[in-house]
Design goal:
29% helix; 9-stranded antiparallel beta sheet; binds fe (iii) ion; Rieske Iron-sulfur Protein; globular; binds FE2/S2 (inorganic) cluster; Naphthalene 1,2-dioxygenase Alpha Subunit, Chain A, domain 1; 447 residues
Length: 447
C-alpha cells in the first residue's frame, strides 16, 4: 500500500490511486473532493455516453423534457421531423435559460429575456426587431442553441455524448449491449416509462450509487434486512444465493442472478402470462440460453452514472405475489457531496395491466423517494461524502476493497463462463467495484 497522498496535487493523487487499487484499497479523498469533481465533469461526463431519458418520455413531435449531463441543463426535444436533439438550455444572447418548464410540447422556445426564438431542433429562428436591430449579414446558422454532437438510442434508452470525437454508442456499450438485449429485448415493443422520473437529493457522492449498483450485493443482508422483516422483500438470503457478478470492459458492471422465483414462475422470474409476451427468437442462441436457464441481469451500472434495477419485490407479502420490477436510475452529480437521484419505473408495453400495477406498487414501496431500501442506502452513502472532506480522514483512511480476495473456496472467476464479460463464482467479492474505480481512475486522469 502506498503512503497516503493527501498533500500532493491531483496528478500525484491519481497516480497513487492506480497503485492502491492494485492493492485493493482506495483513499477516501476519491469520494469527496471539489477538485476531483471538476475533473470528473471535464473528463468523464463531457466525454462519456450519458443517459438522458427514454424515448417513451417524448413520443410525439414537439415533446421535450429538461435533462442534465453532469451539472449542465439541456432540453431533450423531438423536432417536427421526429428526430431527437439535446439542446443546451442557454440563450446565445445573454445565456438566460430559454426553457423553464420541466416538460411540454412546443415547436419553438422563446427566450424570456429579450425574446430570441429557437426551433425545437435548436436552429435560431429570429429575434424582436431583427430587421432594424441586427445587420442583414447576421448568419442565423451561427446563433442556434448549442447541441450535443452525438445522440443515439439502444432499446429506447437515449444516450448523448458531448465529445465531437466520441466513439459510437454501440462501441461504448461493448458487451453491455448483450445484457441490455436479454433485459429489454424480450418483447419487440419493449418497455415504457411510468410517469415522470422520481427525483430527490441525497448527501452522497454520485459514485456511491454507481459502484453499489454495479456489484454490492454484500450490503443487502445487513443494510436491507428490515425489508424482509416488514414483508417488502421476499427472502434476502435466498435471493442472494443464486447471485454472482459480471464485469465487462468500459467500466460497466452487473449483478446477475439465476432463478429468482420458483415455479409456477417461469424463466426464473416471470408469471406465465407475462412470459407469453416474450419473443425469444429475436435473441441470439447464446442469449436464448441465458434467458431459458433462468439467468437475469439484475442490478447493473453503465459507466458513468446510469444504473438499472431488475429484481423481484412485493407490495404486501400478506396479500400480493412477488413480481419483477424494473427501473432506470441515474446518479446526477450536483457537487462533490450531493447527488440528485432520478428513478424511472418501467413497465412492459404488452404485459397484463394487473402485473404492471403490482410491479409499480412494489417499486415505490422499496425504491424511489419513499422506498424502504432507498432510505437505507442514502443514509449509508453519506459516509464517504462527509468523511472524504475530513482532514484527519484524508491523512489516515484508505477504504478496503478486498472482499473475497485470497479466500480459499471464496472469490473466484468462472473459468468456463460462455457469455460476454468476466463472471465471478459468488457475490461475496468486490471485483466489479475495483474495475469500476480503475476505469474511473483512467478516465479522470486523461488530459
Ligand atoms: Fe435571450 Fe437576450 S438572453 S434574448
Ligand atoms: Fe441497497
Amino acid at each position: 500500500m502506498t503512503a497516503i497522498q493527501d498533500q500532493g496535487g491531483v496528478d500525484a493523487f491519481l497516480a497513487g490511486v492506480a497503485t492502491d487499487l492494485d492493492d485493493g484499497v482506495l483513499p477516501i479523498r476519491a469520494f469527496s473532493s471539489p477538485e476531483l469533481h471538476q475533473l470528473e465533469l471535464e473528463r468523464v461526463f463531457a466525454k462519456s455516453w450519458v443517459y438522458v431519458g427514454h424515448v417513451t418520455e417524448i413520443p410525439n413531435a414537439g415533446d421535450y423534457v429538461l435533462r442534465y449531463v453532469g451539472r449542465d441543463q439541456f432540453i431533450l426535444a423531438r423536432d417536427e421531423d421526429g428526430e431527437i436533439h439535446l439542446l443546451f438550455n442557454s440563450c446565445m444572447h445573454r445565456a438566460t435559460a430559454v426553457c423553464h418548464a420541466e416538460k411540454g410540447n412546443s415547436s419553438h422556445f422563446r427566450c424570456p429575456y429579450h425574446g430570441w426564438i429557437y426551433k425545437n431542433n435548436g436552429d435560431w429562428n429570429g429575434a424582436p426587431h431583427r430587421v432594424n436591430a441586427y445587420p442583414r449579414t447576421m448568419d442565423p446558422q451561427q446563433w442556434g442553441l448549442r447541441k450535443a454532437p452525438h445522440v443515439d438510442t439502444y432499446h429506447g434508452l437515449i444516450f448523448v455524448n458531448l465529445d465531437p470525437d466520441a466513439i459510437s454508442l454501440t462501441e461504448y456499450l461493448g458487451d453491455m449491449a448483450w445484457y441490455l438485449d436479454v433485459t429489454f429485448g424480450l418483447n419487440p415493443h419493449g418497455m415504457r416509462v411510468v410517469g415522470d422520473p422520481h427525483r430527490w437529493v441525497a448527501g452522497a457522492n454520485w459514485k456511491s450509487g454507481a459502484e453499489n449498483f454495479g456489484g454490492d450485493a454484500y450490503h443487502v443482508p445487513h443494510l436491507h434486512r428490515s425489508g424482509e422483516e416488514v414483508g417488502v422483500f421476499p427472502n434476502v438470503d435466498a435471493a442472494l444465493s443464486g447471485q454472482f457478478h459480471i464485469a465487462v470492459d468500459g467500466g460497466h458492471s452487473i449483478v446477475a442472478s439465476r432463478g429468482f422465483l420458483p415455479e409456477p414462475w417461469v424463466l426464473g422470474a416471470w408469471p406465465p402470462d407475462v412470459a407469453a409476451i416474450f419473443e425469444l427468437d429475436k435473441l441470439t442462441s447464446d442469449q436464448q440460453e441465458f434467458v431459458n436457464n433462468g439467468w437475469c441481469a439484475t442490478v447493473f451500472t453503465i459507466f458513468p452514472n446510469l444504473s438499472i434495477l431488475h429484481v423481484p419485490g412485493v407490495y404486501d407479502a400478506q396479500s400480493t405475489p412477488p413480481v419483477m420490477m424494473t427501473a432506470l436510475r441515474q446518479w446526477q452529480p450536483r457537487s462533490h457531496d450531493k447527488t440528485e437521484i432520478w428513478n424511472w419505473p418501467l413497465e412492459w408495453i404488452d404485459a397484463p395491466a394487473e402485473f404492471n400495477r403490482l410491479s409499480y406498487d412494489a417499486m415505490i414501496t422499496s425504491f424511489g423517494p419513499a422506498g424502504l431500501f432507498e432510505q437505507d442506502d442514502t443514509v449509508a452513502w453519506q459516509g464517504p461524502a462527509e468523511v472524504g472532506t475530513s482532514v484527519f480522514a484524508r491523512q489516515t483512511m484508505k477504504l478496503n476493497y478486498q472482499l473475497g480476495q485470497g479466500v480459499p473456496g471464496g472469490f473466484g472467476l468462472v473459468e468456463d463462463w460462455k457469455f460476454p464479460g468476466v463472471a465471478t463464482t459468488s457475490v461475496y467479492d468486490e471485483h466489479n467495484q475495483l474495475r469500476f474505480w480503475k476505469h474511473w481512475q483512467e478516465k479522470v486522469s486523461e488530459k
